[in-house]
Amino acid sequence: MTDNEHTYREAGVDIDLEARAVRALIDSLTYRRSGAFPMLGKVGHFAGLIDFGPYVLALAVDGVGTKMLVADALCDWSTVGIDCIAMNVNDLYVMNLEPVAFVDYIATDVLLPEKMAQIGEGLNEGARLANMNIVGGETATLKGLVNGLDLAGTCLGVQKKEKVVTGEGVVPGDLIVGVPSSGIHSNGLTLARKVVEDCASYDTRLSNGKTLGEELLTPTRIYAEVLRVTEACTIHGMCHVTGGGLLNFKRLSEYGFSFTDPLEVPDIFRWLQETGGISDEEMYRTFNMGMGYAFVAPAESVAAIQATVPDARVVGEVTEEPGVRLKGSTVR
Questions:
Q1: Which of 151, 171, 266, 324 could form a disulfide with 331 if both were Cys (CB 3.0 to 4.6 A apart)?
Q2: In whole angstroms, what is the distance from residue 120 CA to residue 61 CA?
Q3: Given pLDDT bands bounded at 50, 70 and 90, which one contains residue 2?
Q4: DSSP character for 97?
Q5: Strands 39-40 and 48-52
Q6: Is the pLDDT of residue 321 over 80?
Q7: What integer pLDDT is reported at residue 1 of this predicted model?
Q8: What pLDDT digit, counting tens, does each position of 171-197 carry?
Q9: Which has the closest alpha carbon to 155: 59, 51, 63, 220?
Q10: 323-326 β-sheet, strand order
C-alpha cells in the first residue's frame, strides 16, 4: 500500500474480522424458547423472524454509526434520525416486511437539548416516510464509557407468513434490478472520514457544487415503495446494500451474483476513490457505490418493478457459480 492509499481496515474497520467476530457471537446463541411464538429461520438474515400464527413478526436493529461524527463536525444533527430509521426499515423491506413500530437508543457522555431536538426531528421525519410509529426509547448518559453520542434503534415489522421473501426462491437466470442510493447512506463513514480528514476538509466542494460535509450528511434513502412492488409482481429476493457493499448479496443465496452493468457512480464515491487511492474492489466491498437497494426477480417482473420504482435498472444476473463478481472480477 502506498502512502496515499486508504483502506477500510487501515481506517479502523476490518470487515473480515467483523464477520468472524459476529459468527463467534451467533454460534453461542443456541437457546430456543419453548411454547408458542417460536423463532423462524436462522440468525443472520437482514431481520429476525417470529412465528405469530398466520403472521410473522420481525425485528431489526441498526444505528447511524460514525456518520454522527460528521454531524458533530458540522453541528447539524437534523437528518441523522432519518438515517437511523432508514437503516432499520430498509432491512425489513428486504424480506417484504412492513415496519410498524420503532424504539430508539441514545448513549452519550453529555446531554445537549438542542442536539436532542434535532435528532428528534430527523427520527420523526423518518417515521413519517416509513409510515411507522415511534413508541418509545432509551437515553443513557454514560460518561467514561461513551465519548460522544451513539444513535441506534430497533424496528418491529409484520407480514402475512406466505408473503415473506427470504431469498430461497432465487435461481440462476434471475435478474438483479438495482435502485439508486441517495449517496453514501450510513456505511463506510469511517473510511470516508479518514480520506476527508487526511486529504481535504468538510468544506471542500465537489464538481456538483456540494461540500463534502453536505454529501456525507445526505440522509439514507427509505425504500418504502418496495411493499408496492411485491404486491405487483414476483420477487425472489431483495438486498439492502449496506456495509460490505456487494458482499451483502451473499446473504440471499449460495448462487452467484454477477454485476455486468452497475449503476452510475455518484460524485462522492469518485472523489473518495481518486483522492484516497482506493481500489475498485475495496470501494465495492465497503460502499454502496450508488446502488442502495436491489430486487432479484425473473425477467418478466422487471417492467412492473420499474413502473413503481422508475429509477430502477437491471445491473446483472444470478449465476450458478457462487460468489460476487463485478464486470468479471471477483469481489472478496
A1: 324
A2: 18
A3: very low
A4: P
A5: antiparallel
A6: yes
A7: 44
A8: 999 999 999 999 999 999 999 999 999
A9: 59
A10: 237-240, 291-297, 175-180, 313-319, 256-259, 323-326, 329-331
- The three-class DSSP label of residue 296 is strand
What are the φ/ψ torsions at residue 240 (nearest 5 degrees)?
Answer: -95, 115
**Side chain identity at 51, as an amino acid letter?**
D
- Give CA–CA dist 8/13, Å, rounded: 5
Residues 6+ apart with CB under 8 A from 181: 220, 221, 241, 266, 288, 290, 291, 292, 293
For position 124, what pLDDT does the model report?
A: 98
Would you say residue 45 has pLDDT above 90? no
Residue 38 cell numbers, joined: 417460536
Confidence of residue 15 (pLDDT cuts 50, 70, 90): confident
Q: Span 60-68, mean pLDDT?
A: 96
Average pLDDT over residues 224-242: 98
Measure Cα distances from 174 to 20, 165, 256, 303 in Å: 30, 15, 11, 14
Structure confidence at residue 306 as a pLDDT band (50, 70, 90) = very high
Residues 6+ apart with CB under 8 A from 263: 178, 180, 289, 290, 291, 313, 315
Distance CA(167)–CA(316), nearest Å, equals 16
Report d(CA 206, CA 219) in Å as an integer: 18
Section 299-324 average pLDDT: 98
Q: Give me the chain's average pLDDT, please.
A: 95
DSSP string for residues in 121-182: HHHHHHHHHHT-EEEEEEEEE-BTTBSSEEEEEEEEEEEEGGG---STT--TTPEEEEEE-S
CA distances from 130 to 30, 98, 112, 281 (A): 33, 9, 27, 33
Closest alpha carbon to 253 in 138, 142, 176: 176
CA torsion angle 62 68 71 76 (round to 10): 60
- Residue 56's φ and ψ, nearest 5 degrees, are -120, 130
Buried residues in 183-198 as b, exposed as e (16+ CB within 10 A): bbbbbbbbbbbbbbee
- By CB atoms closer than 10 A (0-12, 13-18, 19+), residue 147 is exposed
